[in-house]
Amino acid sequence: MRTTLDLPDTLVNEALILTKIPTKTELIKFALENVIQREKIKELSGYFGKVTLDIDLGKLRKR
């Protein structure tokens, strides 16, 4: 998908230097993947302590 974006040059240049990603397109893909991953992790952390698993660790260790 082609999209025109107005991004601050300072942010883009700093991100290119820090990540050592060679192109702006790859940098944007990388940034989007990271945002998606972070949001999914945040969503999963909401389940902490709410899921019960019937796992017998002793039995698993003896396997």
Folded structure, characterized:
With 63 residues, the protein is an all-alpha fold. It has helices at residues 9-19, 24-45, 57-62. The longest helix is centred in the middle third of the chain and has 22 residues, at 24-45. It starts with 8 loop residues before the first helix and ends with a helix. The model has no long low-confidence stretch (mean pLDDT 91).
Concise account of the structure shown:
The protein has 63 residues and is mainly alpha-helical.
Round the Cα radius of gyration to an integer and report it.
20 Å
Could you give the count of β-strands?
Answer: 0
Proportion of strand residues: under 5%
Tell me the series of helices and strands, N- to C-terminal: HHH
Instruction: Note the main sheet.
Output: none
First and last CA, distance: 50 Å
Report low-confidence residues grouped into runs of 5 or more.
none
Helix content range: 55-70%
Decide which structural class fits the backbone. mainly alpha
Form type: elongated
Overall pLDDT confidence: 91
The number of helical elements comes to: 3
